[in-house]
UniProtKB/TrEMBL annotation:
It holds the Pfam family FTR1. It is a multi-pass membrane protein. InterPro entries: FTR1/Fip1/EfeU. Belongs to the oxidase-dependent Fe transporter (OFeT) (TC 9.A.10.1) family. It comes from Glutamicibacter ardleyensis. It is found in: Membrane. The chain crosses the membrane at residues 6-26, 38-58, 70-91, 145-166, 178-198, 210-231, 243-261. The lineage of its organism: Bacteria, Bacillati, Actinomycetota, Actinomycetes, Micrococcales. Keywords: Membrane, Transmembrane, Transmembrane helix. This is Iron transporter.
Length: 273
């Protein structure tokens, strides 16, 4: 639940900030009459994201166990790829996001109605689809039902409240530090989702080594206990992990974390005059 709360908070805050920037720019530039087009695009993005989440949840039902595991494992890996791209993209694009959005608005503001609708839909839809897929994959990894959805909903709700407070100047936080640290945590969460995706493919018979365990600490950390549930909910940690799962986790988390921290926290080079 906590991991999904973090996903909902981060992705939701990204989407909310984009909406705030779009609305503020149109209002300040004297084009408030165009706001319904932006809201229409945002509404379309939300509906598509919800529909995508419903398709992921109910689509695989009725298939064989092996087919469900194959689909689940494959989509988990896609989700990890998307969230990895997202955290690196946000680390680089956050500095020019405001200017890029203004440029897109200026290009289509005086054109057809569909132009601004698409700007709103694409700006928010990317985060929506990524969130739906990653939350679905994380929920499968934890083996829970409603709790991951509740965590994601609370995270999105918190993001909306923070966005409103930031827009009104009531709250001031360092967004760069927020996205930097949450991105680092998401690398670990994504590593757990990737490992579980590998486990799904092992159960589907597509990957070997299902019965070769790297470690089994179920006797110390009970899967249904408080600690086991907490570790599973936050980091998708499994007390019984196969060698392939453990290897994939290390091969993903270590280099990705290194590259991400170097990207985010690298010292700025001084500009010589």
């Amino acid at each position: 639940m906590i991991g999904n709360y973090l996903i909902g908070l981060r992705e939701g805050l990204e989407a909310v900030l984009i909406v705030v920037l779009l609305v503020a720019y149109l209002t300040k530039s004297g084009r408030a009459h165009l706001l319904p087009r932006i809201w229409a695009g945002i509404g379309i993005a939300v509906l598509i994201s919800l529909g995508f989440g419903a398709l992921l949840t109910f689509g695989p039902r009725g298939l064989t166990f092996e087919a469900q595991e194959m689909i689940g494992g494959s989509l988990s890996m896609i989700a990890v790829g998307l969230v990895t791209w997202m955290i690196f993209w946000m680390a680089k694009a956050s500095k020019t996001l405001n200017a890029d959005l203004k440029s897109q608005v200026d290009q289509v503001a005086e054109g057809s109605v569909i132009g601004l609708v698409l700007v709103g839909a694409f700006a928010v839809g990317r985060e929506g689809l990524e969130t739906a897929l990653f939350i679905w994959a994380a929920a499968r990894a934890t083996g829970e039902t409603w709790q991951p959805l509740l965590g994601a909903f609370l995270g999105i709700l918190t993001a909306i409240v923070l966005g409103i407070l930031l827009n009104r100047g009531v709250l001031k936080i360092s967004l760069s530090k927020f996205f930097a640290w949450t991105g680092a945590i998401l690398v670990i969460v994504a590593g757990g989702v990737l490992a579980y995706g590998v486990h799904d493919l092992q159960e589907a018979g597509l990957l070997p080594g299902l019965h070769y365990l790297a470690f089994d600490v179920s006797g110390v950390i009970a899967p249904g206990g408080v600690l086991g549930t907490l570790l599973k909910g936050v980091f998708n940690f499994s007390p019984a992990t196969t060698w392939l799962e453990a290897t994939v986790w290390v091969l993903y988390v270590v280099p990705v974390m290194f590259l991400y921290l170097r990207t985010v926290f690298a010292p700025k080079t001084a500009v010589r005059g």
